[in-house]
Protein 1
Amino acid sequence: MDSSAPIVVQKFGGTSVADTERIRAVADHVVRTVRHGERPVVVVSAMGKETDDLLRAARDVAASPPGREMDMLVTAGERKAMALVCMAINDLGVPSESFTGSQAGFLTDGTHTDARILDVRPDRIRAAIEAGRVPVVGGAQGVSDTNDVTFLGRGGSDTTAVALAHALGARSCELYTDVSGVFTTDPRVVSEARRMDRISFDELLEMTANGCPKPAMRSVEFARTHGVDLHIRSAFTWEQGTWVSKEEEFMEQAIVSAVVHDTDEAKVTILGVPDRPGIAAGLFRSLADAAVNVDMIVQNTSADGHTDISFTVPHGDLAVAIPVCERVASEVGATRVTTDDGIARVSVVGAGMRSHPGVAATVFETLAGNGINIEMISTSAIRISCVVRQDQVEQAVQHLHDAFSLADGPKLVD
Amino acid sequence: MDSSAPIVVQKFGGTSVADTERIRAVADHVVRTVRHGERPVVVVSAMGKETDDLLRAARDVAASPPGREMDMLVTAGERKAMALVCMAINDLGVPSESFTGSQAGFLTDGTHTDARILDVRPDRIRAAIEAGRVPVVGGAQGVSDTNDVTFLGRGGSDTTAVALAHALGARSCELYTDVSGVFTTDPRVVSEARRMDRISFDELLEMTANGCPKPAMRSVEFARTHGVDLHIRSAFTWEQGTWVSKEEEFMEQAIVSAVVHDTDEAKVTILGVPDRPGIAAGLFRSLADAAVNVDMIVQNTSADGHTDISFTVPHGDLAVAIPVCERVASEVGATRVTTDDGIARVSVVGAGMRSHPGVAATVFETLAGNGINIEMISTSAIRISCVVRQDQVEQAVQHLHDAFSLADGPKLVD
């Protein structure tokens, strides 16, 4: 390999390495990258559902397994995947070497099952690259200062890839997924959905939705902080995917980039909450302690000293959330708790909307004009989200995609 | 745990940790050992057939996977098992910590897939023991001086256990198997078969046979060289198993300790081989190069300048052995090659027969007197093996077990 060739980190998730056939396809892709004049550094997750299987085995043998042992256990998953990917690359005639997180120089704190990276010292990775070998690194792994194996948590392979790209000064970090990039909306709902060439880190962070690639938030934040350009693409096509980079690098800026939706949430409402300071804080602290993932939160202006608090949670968290809410409601003297799992969330996302307050009005008019009732509204600087009935959400997506002419390409800030 | 309590290494093979239920049973056994006043150090193999599964995956992705990557791959197996065993021990209220071969201080050469131990520096294991924690070590693993993961080969967990017992000055090394010790013969064939209390390393090394525990030969040799007492026993009973130690420690010495048999071999004969120096050497070098495991070799005295060479191989190696033999036979001008897979081997083993040449005569008389024809004979200082028809081997075992009165306990050297 040409020693001046650009270094590119390529991260393959569990789906991309789910079986030996896919592993051979990944190896083929990596080898083509080499032939194409780049120097790839590969990061892999565990195969398919292997991490889930390991966690199930742990639950079978112990009620509360120590974190240190959980990390020893789950890192067996990436170890297997990385060795197999490496063998498959070698088999295609390109020398390759696999590295654990420790061997790759990932020094972390000792917070087992959710360790933080303290430093990346990829000396062995650099040596392998310079010797013309393709390094294959186990994702989400590190080593603590007591020489114990640590795991960065679910989705940690994205973080490994971005941190390694930064430490190596790689030209970019490619995140391979089963879709070929980030689309203006879910292509399964709107056939005219268009793959975007570029979006900003902030936009990607707002895009947790159906049919949308979901790099771990932590890795996107790391990339934003350190200016590591991400390239979200498919391993099974040579098309360009979607580049994610800092906003100021954009030549042109869309007002609205994408319409996304999420049907995996339910709404919880606590009615008649006395309007005293600290009640909301107490409620959401209790939910956080119960590991409930709260998404949108809406509290209306108080009327007659009482208010209603609504929020959305993933369906899977509802059973845990309800008793917590009922306990808090009873403690503070609220009227009652209602839940609704027939809702969905639709959001428009775009960095350009910061300077275009009219976007919210267009969203509300579009939905109202098509007979779609809005149950909750929540906004950030670059996102407007509405909760609507679940059976109307696909209509909502289609109408909003049309209203902002997203199929035609970026509508620029003037 | 009492800091003066004896240290005992306990090695559990793949069958003992085949699923999460068995892993909990192993943990229970280890915890009882602690309550019993000993300080166990646990060594585990990969779960059940996991190593085979990993090797199959490797073959699926690559024609000739590099040894370094094979070792990275297969060590994922023990890693998983050791973390789960460790969790299960913790779950029973006894603190435990798992260690890779590298963390346990196994320094090896760089011969991947079949590395040799150069040194064992179990500092972290000692620290864990002194802190009252049960160390659980991944078997067959090490690290080379280039910081690469190495594997000691199949059966390497026995070697790990014995080497660790030696390095820690353990009182003994317990090898857990699915039988409760070493028997005077296969209990499935002879109901009066008796579990032996003690045998010598040399005797155990001669006992590769059906129904007999088979610690890796290398580990038994290591134990013999370094005087590590082995205790072969079952994890699922508190009975004593069979102790294996140096001969001079015996109070009494049996002439014949056991009758063992093996039905997994086939016989190959090359007829009419010209009696020139170097022909046998060339044949067995060619077979070794083809990775054929040759067991018994018999060459008759030459008559009229030609001889016959016979040897036995495992059934699984026969298909590879035949073309090699036919090529060599044609090169040297031998008459022809015949094979016979209807044979079996029966052996009597005993350290005391060294000084009792009459044993061979008793063996031959017993077989002949019961109408069992002997097709091949091979002897060592402490073993006499005969090849007979496979359908007569169980009779042979029964008659020999009777002839030496093995059900009654050791027959002593007078």
Note: Residues 109 and 145 of chain A are 7 Å apart (CA to CA).
Protein 2
Amino acid sequence: MQKNITDVTGFKVRGCHIGIKSKRRDLALIFSEVPASAAAVYTQNKVQAHPIKLTKKHLENKTAQAIIVTSGNANACNGPKGMQGAKKAAIVLATELDISVDDVIVAATGVIGEPFPTDKVVKAIRKNVSVLSDRKIAGDMVANAIMTTDTFQKEGFSSFKIGKKKVNMAGIAKGSGMIHPNMATMLCFIVSDVNIDPDLLQDALSESVKRTFNMITVDGDTSTNDMVSVMANGLAGNERITEKDEEYELFQRKLEDLLRHLAKAIVSDGEGATKFVTYTVTNARSEEEGRKVAKTIANSNLVRTALFGRDPNWGRIIAAVGRSGVDIDPDKIDIYLGSSKNMMKVAENGNRLDFDRKRIKLMLKSSQLCVLVKLNQGEKEATAWGCDFSYEYVRINAEYHT
Amino acid sequence: MQKNITDVTGFKVRGCHIGIKSKRRDLALIFSEVPASAAAVYTQNKVQAHPIKLTKKHLENKTAQAIIVTSGNANACNGPKGMQGAKKAAIVLATELDISVDDVIVAATGVIGEPFPTDKVVKAIRKNVSVLSDRKIAGDMVANAIMTTDTFQKEGFSSFKIGKKKVNMAGIAKGSGMIHPNMATMLCFIVSDVNIDPDLLQDALSESVKRTFNMITVDGDTSTNDMVSVMANGLAGNERITEKDEEYELFQRKLEDLLRHLAKAIVSDGEGATKFVTYTVTNARSEEEGRKVAKTIANSNLVRTALFGRDPNWGRIIAAVGRSGVDIDPDKIDIYLGSSKNMMKVAENGNRLDFDRKRIKLMLKSSQLCVLVKLNQGEKEATAWGCDFSYEYVRINAEYHT
């Protein structure tokens, strides 16, 4: 059986059903036996759910020891009662675990503007803290409990050596684009037993998110509840990472790998997606410009419907590049299309090429597509991940009623 | 019969079928008997069609006398041959009309990267210049000839007095979102017999476009071929408008009214649209911030699918406001939803309200919807227009093959 979050030293978890949702699991608890260095990144949306606001305050001390996630209710736009509910949950969890209330990370995902069932949650916390567990099955259940309309669990694990010590790191994530209206949230929780300074942990996280979670797109909408947090409790026993040396670099790379794995899993579960698409932009003047171009293409409804229809419609791709806000020279752009195994050049120097239409249409039948845009203006590159755009997206998002 | 472009003094037109498209009209010619003050705005896409590049050069002298539009072929991304084709068309038209080649506006709409049928176009120009006409039926045909997948013609006319002289102004437009892949273009040609300095004409146009054409959205994609141009030949005989006085203000307002009328017609014809939606943002700190917020909501796939599904899902609206890039205070936002006749408050101070769900669902059955967002941070307001998002959009854009 694959390793999971319970294989990281010093973490116990619980995932269960408490009745926010009608049948599925809807409460997740994660607990570190000792206070951990903590870091997080949050949604850039100006409208932020109450748990996000509270967690930001709690993490000012860069330390956390527990996470509570409720699923089925976003606890967003709920006024003073919403904030009271989030605080109450944190206080009760802290009391039950005998930890500082500032060391609780609170997260939620679900419908916006639905009253938060504070009493139900408080009761459930009291009942479930005693059954926190480090058995593998508990890890499985906690990954399951943060799902909303996800069709599969998103988990990852890695271990590597820092100095002579084996370090473990695991993560769980949820999100399937905005498959279910108002249940848009992307959540990701990483735990590790590495010993690291919290400021460096934050740097490693921010650096990694830039190239992973921030490079996936399902429909360009940003939730009020998005959060990626990481806790590192130091129980691996490595010498504390306190500067940006080789060991920091190794940890950052491993963290980025894990986040990339989870981010790609989210896109694969995108609403109504029939194809997973990798958008690579090379020879950009800067990584940031490359990212901007890649994301604009990945977000284009026209590009995405064309890929759903297996149409090598590169005109839509170059039009998206042109409106990305990056100062590109259109006459230098080469475009390649295809599957993850075979690519074909379809445009050169910004202009049409006679390519084998029949062959490329066959290539576009693959469920793993690649779009490669060479800007030919510099040395940098970036990658975004997305999915195609099917009838299912409209059905899911129009037929659902609040 | 309604007045059209042929009711503006000194303009003759021709719209006909020359075989770029299989059956429908595909060539439009507009001619002013005398050189006219000319102004234009163009797509902001960095990838620009050859006709756009050529027209920009031609309008450096701020004068135009003729317009040629081909429909069915965008003449974009066609390399040196594409530019040669655009130039050839301008030269031949200028020769036939005995005007300066710099005074020809060239526009095109259709598939990107498809070789431009230069010979066919040249032959057609030679044949059709002699039948330019100011009969009403010709005005009808020219409005028809610029259509691609539009389901109806977009025309407008107005007349008003500048001093003691009656001034006429007419416009034709095309665009139905990106209903047909690669046929995304929004084109609009305004002609008037007003006498005005070309720099003021450009100012009036830029000012008007900001609040009209730039405030409509069907799917957030920007074409490589968009253009709005205006020609004013002075034959109304009014005293030339040479400064920003009352008469300039009147002309600018009338121009803005005409552009708004045409812009709204384009949105009404949006691909797969079942509802026309007006998004009003009030009490913004600046008009620009209001516009940014209004456009972000209008562009949200999630808001648009909710409206298609008649769901009063204000959580999606406030989430769109929050990610608009404008520094808003979410706790001040009020949201109203409804038809153009009845609105209901659904959120107050950024938070949920208990509203009559049944009644609002009835209101949302209307084909003319309104979304009103009060930011309560200032005095300015802005309006955007859009349409809902139906299965048809995906069908149209996925089933079409290049």
Note: Residues 246-268 of chain B form the longest helix (23 residues).
